[in-house]
Write a structure and sequence with these properties.
With 65 residues, the chain is α+β, with helices and mostly antiparallel strands. It contains two helices and three strands; from the N terminus they run βββαα. The protein has a three-stranded antiparallel sheet with strand order 1-2-3, with no helix packed on it. The protein starts with a strand and ends with a helix.
Length: 65
């Protein structure tokens, strides 16, 4: 068994996931035995919604809170 920590970041979102999977490969699907243990997304969508898209200045200020 192996445990995988997956991280994704952008100016307005950050996500993390923890997966557990076997080392075996099944045909073309290498992740057929994977199990999602936990995941979380932190998003600033609400802060940018009124502008109709991401505003870099707003995104950078929200990183300080």
């Amino acid at each position: 068994m192996k445990t995988i920590l997956a991280l994704e970041t952008s100016c307005d979102e950050t996500a993390v996931a923890i997966l557990r999977g076997s080392d075996r490969r099944s045909g073309s699907n290498r992740h057929s035995g994977s199990e999602l243990l936990a995941s979380e997304v932190a998003s600033q969508i609400a802060a940018h919604e009124k502008f109709g898209g991401v505003v870099p200045e707003v995104a950078s200020r929200n990183h300080l809170v």
